[in-house]
From TrEMBL:
Keywords: DNA-binding, Transcription, Transcription regulation. CDD domains: PBP2_LTTR_substrate. Residues 4-61 form the HTH lysR-type domain. This is HTH lysR-type domain-containing protein. It comes from the Bacteria. PANTHER family: LYSR SUBSTRATE-BINDING, TRANSCRIPTIONAL DUAL REGULATOR HCAR-RELATED.
């Protein structure tokens, strides 16, 4: 491979992750024609087809996918050298873009910000996101760290493209109005609650997958009166007697006293995994690694 320009590799990697020349152009602040030109140059240097036409767009060939995977390794190696040199010259610092969904922000963000006071050279830029389970990993293309969640048993993000740092396994409990017949029970079974009216999250979100699994175990479709991504709204509706809900134990537990009761599910191990996701080339940056370590420490603190 003669005259192979590794500076062109990132555009191939971006195409593999974003799926279209237009998306790559928008993310990298180039024109689509400039992206296409770089792809043609890289393909000529590689000596084999890297992309092929599909309808009005393009997709990677098998060789293109292989080279895109190698591009991630190159980016990680370069980022490691650049970050180490920068730290050598100026000390630990830089900006870290952290995307976090609301209930994880409730649980982790106050303590994280307190911990980061020990690192005045690191600036945290915070983004509020709330997406379905499969959409957290793609966000790592635009953020240094993404805090996502998935239900027990669901697969982790692809380890080759995304580094996953486990933070919390948060059990899911059943939230019951104070006057509910089951409100004095510490544990409830699937048969006790499956016919109830539920307050839920949107379909495709991790907690909804658990509710669907409960329904499948009893062969009874759940009756969901209302769906929302906002956990406090769910809690308010339960407290007002409009239904019951599956809620995360540590997060909702801080607001339950005097408003609603939490009962453990007796027949199933229901929970969600809260994780920090990062591209490997971003995770090697000392500032990003420091944030990840602070997140792990804070997750341990809030659960113990």
């Amino acid at each position: 491979m003669v005259g192979f320009d590794i500076a062109l590799l990132p555009v191939l990697r971006e195409l593999a992750e974003r799926g279209s020349v237009t998306a790559v152009a928008a993310a990298t602040h180039r024109t689509p024609s400039a992206v296409s030109q770089q792809l043609r140059t890289l393909q000529r240097q590689a000596g084999v087809p890297l992309v092929e036409r599909v309808g009005r767009g393009v997709r990677l060939t098998a060789d293109g996918s292989a080279l895109a995977g190698m591009a991630a390794g190159v980016a990680t190696a370069l980022a490691s050298v650049e970050s180490a040199w920068s730290e050598h010259l100026t000390g630990l610092g830089g900006t870290v873009d952290l995307a976090v969904f609301p209930s994880a922000a409730e649980l982790l963000l106050p303590g994280l910000l307190t911990r980061m006071r020990a690192y005045p050279g690191i600036v945290l830029e915070l983004s509020d996101v709330d997406v379905s389970e499969g959409e957290f990993a793609p966000l790592t293309a635009d953020h240094d760290v993404v805090i996502g969640h998935r239900p027990d048993g669901a697969r982790r993000a692809d380890g080759a493209a995304v580094e996953t740092v486990a933070l919390i396994r948060e059990p899911l409990d059943v939230a019951l109005p104070l006057g509910h017949p089951l409100a004095e029970r510490e544990r409830v079974g699937i048969g006790d609650v499956v016919d109830e009216t539920w307050i839920g999250v949107p379909e495709g979100y991790p907690i909804d997958r658990v509710l669907t699994a409960l329904a499948a175990a009893s062969d009874t479709p759940p009756s969901v009166a209302f769906r929302t991504i906002h956990l406090p709204v769910i809690e308010n509706l339960v407290a007002a007697g409009h239904g019951i809900a599956l809620v995360p134990r540590y997060t909702s537990g801080t607001r339950a006293a005097g408003r609603f009761r939490l009962a453990t599910l007796a027949d199933v191990r229901a929970g969600r995994r809260i994780e920090a996701l990062a591209r490997p080339d971003r995770a090697v940056r000392p500032a990003v690694r420091t944030v990840l370590e602070a997140l792990v420490a804070e997750a341990h603190a809030v659960t113990t």
